[in-house]
Specification:
This protein has three helices and 22 strands. The chain has 360 residues and is mainly beta. The longest helix has 12 residues.
């Protein structure tokens, strides 16, 4: 993991600090009067991203989803007013000594013009705009020290679900299994950088429109590529697998992205028939395939039996391997029947760390 060092500099007076941010936002803060007579030097480095600012070529299959496309660094006074915003390399920052500042880094986030600390924490990040947002904030204590260094180790706000392999273990006399679509359903689509609250907004159990349930056996009725956030929640591989064949044998794998969902609650065995997204249910993965002339669905609870975490957690990767043993359901809202598929989920931090193997 490549470490980015960002030296920063500016000399700030109390008048400029308090007036520039307050005028922009019309906010009144309770920051103490900062005296420029004694100063300290603050150095900031950022860890947790793969490379310096680059432009990602595509979002189809992303091997560099820890890459920074944009960087915003904020320094906040003790009362929460914005003292400084930086987005490019600069010299070390000189600040009035005697205070504790909050330093925050927002990677790949929406452009913010000198927000207050509260406004930054309350900012809503949308999956349809960008699932690769990273964030970290921590305190810089300049009470007495002449020089202070802060290393911000940013982590992803989202979770990553990778389908590493799908194997056709159906009897050979059934012919090929063609995987038409795979999609996440009941997807959490928004998050906040700090103390997050989430909304479940995308891909409701095979419905492109929540008020229009798809018909049994429909290939085209499930989530379409025109749906919001489809680039991160829908794949259409159209891969034909003969008996015993798998994705990996054809060099295929894919990644989905969502925000965390702490719920593990399963869809009822009879299926889900509501007309609104259910924020009490888990996020699910659905595989849609055809055998002969008929379409089947294998829908898997991603939040169930993950003992290490509470459902899908931020900054974690969930590697799913699926072996299809029997025909699935004709309705995507009906969960997979035990025995019809073998599923394993490998869980690990999005960056470094050991793996945890759990069967679901």
């Amino acid at each position: 993991m490549k470490k980015i060092f960002i030296p920063l500099s500016c000399t700030l007076t109390a008048v400029l600090l308090l007036s520039s941010c307050d005028k922009m936002h019309g906010e009144k803060t309770s920051s103490p009067q900062l005296s420029p007579e004694e100063t300290s030097t603050l150095s900031i480095s950022i860890e947790g991203v793969d490379a310096e600012i680059t432009t990602r070529a595509s979002t189809s299959e992303i091997g560099s989803d820890k890459t920074a496309q944009s960087t915003q660094i904020f320094i906040f006074e003790p009362g929460g007013a914005c003292a400084k915003k930086l987005s490019a390399a600069s010299n070390d920052i000189v600040l009035p000594r005697g205070f504790k500042y909050t330093v925050a880094a927002l990677i790949n986030g929406p452009e913010l013009a000198n927000p207050s600390l509260t406004a930054l924490r309350d900012k809503i990040i949308s999956l349809k705009d960008h699932p690769f947002v990273m964030y970290k904030e921590q305190q810089a204590d300049l009470t007495t020290a002449a020089e202070v260094s802060v290393a911000l180790k940013v982590t992803s706000l989202g979770a990553r679900v990778r389908v590493k392999n799908v194997t056709n273990n159906l009897p050979s006399w059934l012919g090929n299994l063609t995987i038409n679509k795979m999609f996440l359903c009941n997807v959490v689509g928004t998050a906040q950088p700090k103390a997050p609250t989430y909304n479940i907004t995308y891909n409701w159990y095979g419905r492109n429109n929540i008020n229009t349930p798809i018909s049994d056996g429909s290939v085209t009725g499930s989530v379409s590529s025109t749906a919001e956030a489809a680039a991160y929640t829908l794949k259409e591989p159209a891969l034909a697998l003969s008996s015993g064949e798998s994705f990996s044998g054809k060099g295929y794998s894919c990644s989905f992205y969502c925000f965390p969902n702490k719920n593990k609650t399963a869809i009822p065995d009879t299926g889900y028939s509501g007309t609104t997204a259910d924020q009490s249910l888990a996020t699910w993965l659905t595989v849609c395939g055809t055998v002969g002339e008929k379409t089947y669905y294998w829908t898997i609870n991603l939040g169930e039996n993950i003992s290490k975490n509470t459902g899908l957690a931020a900054n974690y990767t969930y590697d799913v391997t699926l072996t299809i043993n029997n025909l699935g359901s004709v309705n995507p809202t009906v969960p997979v029947v035990p025995g019809s598929a073998d599923i394993s989920c490998t869980i690990s931090p999005w960056t470094d760390g050991g793996d945890i193997i759990t069967s679901i």
